[in-house]
Design goal:
HTH-type_TetR-like_transc_reg; transcription; Tetracycline Repressor, domain 2; Tet_transcr_reg_TetR-rel_C_sf; single chain; elongated; HTH_TetR; Arc Repressor Mutant, subunit A; transcription cis-regulatory region binding
Length: 203
């Protein structure tokens, strides 16, 4: 039998897709409830209603399962806004980040994954890839603003997108500040103001 592909590198169909979806959903629930340290492949299999051997054969380890979960989350995340106005687009981005981090399931799940990434290289790589996929999804909002002449032509578009979510993640992980509508609005307005002022021009 051929070796199984790296989790997250192919999109299975049919029963395989249903099993993957069930296992990833169960893994997300387990992470949100117990954190990465409590993630057990056998328990995930039980929650998903599939055989242990299926989970162990396909994923092999908790880190591989988390990597696939993050890949799936990146793919399933809501598409970017395209309003034709930079501020409105980035406000939508800020609201999406805020809604994700304050969600009763997604918030604890992200906290568990981020904690795991601090001490596990594979999880860290998967988390970095997840974030860069999301940044790339929203980068065209800034690039289009550059093309419209709203921003300096040498603006680093991905950096502007990162500037929107950075203060929200800081509140989520460090300061404990409220992740409310006002915080999301400030994050978007600050990123746009800084971009207009040339703060994100490429070196």
């Amino acid at each position: 039998m051929a070796d199984d592909p790296e989790p997250g590198t192919v999109r299975p169909g049919g029963r395989t897709a249903r099993v993957r979806a069930a296992v990833l959903d169960a893994a997300g629930d387990a992470l949100a409830e117990t954190g990465f340290a409590g993630l057990d492949l056998g328990e995930v299999a039980r929650r998903a209603g599939v055989g242990k051997t299926t989970v162990y054969r396909r994923w092999g380890s908790p880190t591989a399962l988390v990597a696939d979960l993050l890949a799936d989350m990146a793919e399933q995340s809501a598409p970017r806004s395209d309003t034709g106005a930079l501020l409105d687009d980035l406000r939508a981005n800020a609201r999406l980040v805020r809604d994700t981090l304050t969600d009763a399931r997604q918030g604890p799940l992200f906290r568990a994954v981020i904690a795991a990434a601090t001490c596990d290289e594979r999880t860290a790589h998967a988390l970095h890839r997840f974030y860069e996929v999301r940044v790339a999804e929203w980068t065209p909002c800034v690039e289009q603003a550059v093309q419209r002449g709203e921003l300096p032509p040498d603006t680093d578009a991905p950096e502007v997108v990162r500037a929107v979510s950075a203060p929200l993640y800081y509140r989520f992980l460090v300061s404990g500040g409220a992740l409310d509508e006002a915080a999301a609005e400030r994050a978007a307005h600050a990123a746009v103001a800084a971009a207009h002022a040339g703060a994100y021009r490429k070196a």
